[in-house]
Task: structure prediction
Amino acid sequence: MSGRMRLAVCAALATLAAACALLPLVERTAWILQAALLLAVQTAVGVLGRRMPLARPLTVAAQAVAGLLLLTVVFAGSQAVGGLLPGPDAFREFGQLVQEGAEDVGRYAIPAPATTGIRLLLVGGVLVVGLIVDALAVTYGAAAPAGLPLLALYSVAAGLAKDGTDWLWFLVAAAGYLVLLLAEGRDRLARWGRVFGGGPGGAGFAPAGAVPAPVRTGRRIGALVLGIALVVPAVLPTMDSGLLDSPGRGSGAGAGDGGVTSVKPLVALQDSLKQPVNREVMRYRTSTANSRDLYLRIVALDRFDGSSWRSSERRLTELPDELPAPAGLAPDVRADLVNTSVAASGSYAQNYLPLPYPAERVRAEGRWRYEPEGRALVGDRGQTTRGLRYQVSSLLVEPTAEQLTEAPAPPTQVLREYTAVPSSLPSVVARTAREVTAGSANAYQQAVRLQDWFAVDGGFRYDTEVESGTGGQAIAKFLKDKRGFCVHYSFSMAAMARTLGIPSRVAVGFMPGTPQADGSVSVGSKDAHAWPELYFEGAGWTRFEPTPSRGSAPEYTVSQRPSAADPGVPSPAPARSAPAAPPSADDRCTARMKKLEGCVPPPQQAGGGSTGTGGPGAGALAGIAVAVLAVAALPLLPLLWRRRVRARRLADTAPRRRGKAARAAEAGAPGPEGPGRAGAGDAVVAERTLAAWRELTDSAWDYGIPPDEARSPRSAVERIVRLGELDGPAAEAAGRVATAVEQVLYAPRPRPAGGLAAEVGDVRAGLRPARGGAPGCGRRWRRARRSGCCGSSPGAGRRRPHGCGPAGRRPSAAGWGPPCARPGSAADGPSGNREEKRRGAGTSVPAPRRKAWSRKAQWPCSSRRRCQRCSMRSITVRRCRTWPRPGPPRGPAAPGWAPGLGALRQPVTASAAHPSITRKPTTLIQYCPGIITPVMRSAMPTRNPATAW
Amino acid sequence: MTTHDERASLGDPPTRAEPSVGGDLITTAERIRRAVESVIEGKPEVVRLSLTVLLAEGHLLIEDVPGVGKTMLAKALARSIDCSVRRIQFTPDLLPSDITGVSVFDQQRRDFEFKPGAIFAQIVIGDEINRASPKTQSALLESMEERQVTVDGHTYELPGPFMVVATQNPVEMEGTYPLPEAQRDRFMARVSMGYPSPEAEMRMLDTHSVVDPLDDLQPVAHAHDILKLVDAVRTVHVADSVRRYAVDLVAATRQHPELRLGASPRATLHLVRAAKAAAALAGREYALPDDVQALAVAVLAHRLLPTAQAQLGRRTAEQIILELLQRTPVPDPAAQHRWASNGHQPPGARRL
Result:
């Protein structure tokens, strides 16, 4: 397994290990297998992309596309085009699923059932994190930052998990990350070209059984760090609420740290209702005898998104001595002051303070802050009710039915905020609300009828075991099944009240509890409750009780019942500006509803939905097909462009396509001509030749030989011939093109050279088999590395028969590269010489020039890197037979050229030079010039150079 | 001090056909090359470089460890050309007047008479030049650059062609002084002999053990031929882009962080002149960037002073120049051409 591949596998493993922390959040764990499978496919795509090799962003993009396709197949197969390609329908399905998943996450207690939405969230999240980790660690070669997405994945899980038993998952996730780091470190070590061995015998790759010392040390360090990370937080007293240990966080904890609060207490609510034993949560004494109406309210949920209620994020203020007067409470409504002292139990930690509504004055120790709109007290910086004792003065508001009946219209601001209903709310809700409240004269009657319908008439049953449905259909499902618990009743009633134009919200808290013998009242966990609050001007927020067999309906609703049932009561004119919906179907849209989201009649909506799901029309299909074709043609654009450019350049080169002047210049350039005409002819010739030259270099670039600016035409062609492994006619043709270009560029008068188009064609034909198949844009646009041929392409290094890179070395490892950048370096050896001979025969390159080149050709291949031995700045990697010399480069040092240096002529193995260093069997030697040069400078026979080591 | 005439005759011009830029130049140069190579075995590139320097009117510095044939090369080059040759053995007690000459009072004519020094020759072999003190070496400065000697207010022209071929040991050797920068700058190129290959060494054993090959060496070209060759070299065309390339290359040495002293404008001049000569020797009437590249190390390296930091890092001037060669872009000919054909000047000095 290559290093990159191992790294990719480790990245996938690390992602999965971090994803394991999500396991306790969901009931069934089958999704992790799904995620593992999809992640494996995605990783495989990445491995393939890197092997091809694609450009890095392209690899990532390919992985992302693969992940999307996989998700489509698994989650939206029926909506996809051909079961695979995600069309608009599939994306709509995704959106729906994600929304449902988000709602389910908010709704269900841990462990949540593995609904499709939640599964999509989990698997998709794991795929996304896996993609980021893979891209960071493998594609971009930075394994350490890949810990960040892993940490994000883990902390999501750890933040959601409610019990403190997830140290095991922490261990798994951290171990996954460490494995990733280990693989990367190993890869980097291997790229150095040597692996630290345990002893002199351990040369070469470490055998499978024996673990190299640094790896062993690394594992020890890793294990130690993991141990410390687990043990130290347990020892430190201040960190007992840290990452691994979060007791008491489960019961509806919200963000109470700053000025903004948002709470999701409902999951906890069902939890506590489902609990087999009724634990005492708090105990209170109150001054009023009527403790039936003393509901302890924790928080108000005032935002309705179609399926569930949440509390808005609101600013918190300092807790005033005297709380402001409750909204909408008129002085003529009877309100008795009630003093209550509460003692919360030690096991009850809630960062909202349960209070009777509306509280006037609160005396509580600790950091409590006040939320004015919902009149809730929020614990600041981890302040909870655990073991807290506090006194509350509150009002017991008792409006009469008449007062409520004659309530004027609520203020516009309240109306706007608390009657907003999302358009996704199923129409059945509003319809049912109208049916139930048909014939009601005013908002109060509507409210009472709703409450009675839920509690008495509607045939609803109280059932805490029911699973509320998913998505926006939850309320509709509840209305159909008629089974549920307080959450369903309060949610539905509040929602229906809103559709009727009555401002409403949901309050969460506790029912009054059970009076004890000593006069106190005990509130248990089974008293947790949710109820709707409706706003009536004059009385303020008024409690209703739609849940059957739970709680107590308020007085003002009970007394109304007979009159509501009485059909003889004449309907007075509606009191509010937005009247309750009359029964007639054509006038369903109130002005407010029109203003808010328009009015779509439900039947039409249903019809539209059915045509929408009927699948895309023919036009859409054709459009998609055209778009797919266009996208498919997009990668071909560079190809087409290149073809066009090539055709134009070579047409320039061909004489028949040129004008008269060109032909004249072609025919009579050597002959006597007028200076002006000759100049024009020269220009034409030069232009033509240069076009051919540009085409030649660009063709070479297409085949993976990037241009090098520091080269003259002649040496550029030499390089193309060498790297492209051209032989025979192709190399000769390239040489002729170079000669022609030299003529044009540097001679006083350019000499016309015919048939350059054919020459360029020959070169292209020669490049094609040598460089393997068609030219790739990827090759050309791959990041050009810095030094000459080393960066041209990994294939170039691999395929070179006389390459000076060590055999078997991974050429793709960045930073190593075959050190063969010098023009005509010694490593070219026979092939280079052969090539020069051919060129000499085929063209007019004079013999002495070749000599000059051969002089240059003996400069040894070298590449620079840091010396590992003396840690000097630079080190030269050369072949052993070629010594660096203080003079200008000369021929390869012949054996025996220096007396006394014979011992060094053999490839210096590490055991001789540095016993601590072992290396792969190779003819390369790494040393810094500083070690060799003194030997060379004073190459005196008497001095034994071996001692210089 | 050892100063002796090897062949004092300026001689008559030979009746041989005059060499021209074309084939005759090459044949003449080829004859000289073969003659020298018959003495110096297995070092064609060194011989070629010395010939290039000769044709480019430069002076040659041969530096290497003792015993590799430096003096042999100088003598062979001098002897294969029919011209006046003098040899100066530089010793620590050599005086400037020994080189330039001295005015002696003639008792009979009651006048000062100028006795020319050893420098008055067409080819001057300065053996072990860095064994003389810098004071003596500076006597060479005027003659090498301006080809004249000024003694007692009189200026004496030196004969043409004029070439100083100096040999020296590496500075690390015992008893040597480093050459002053000014003098190093006057040498067009520095070459190193290097050790011969085993085969060449075997052949050398055969030839040298019987008879000194220098004795057999006959002049193959006259000084006038050389002058004509030099004239021909002067006519070699150097395109704008090649000149710019040479300038870029030299300028890069002046800005290189590892160099304390870059190459001088004279180095640019020498580089282009040597490139011309190389092109002429290759039978071309125009110089290529390749010529500049091939000669850059020999022409530039000995003028550069690496910084102390670079010396600590064992960076040699040769390495730095090779690095610069890889880095400096050859001025894009196509762009240059387009500019030229449009009749505009390129906006910037360099393309990049």
Notes: The first strand of chain A starts at residue 260 and ends at 261. Chain A touches chain B through 57 residues (CB under 8 Å).
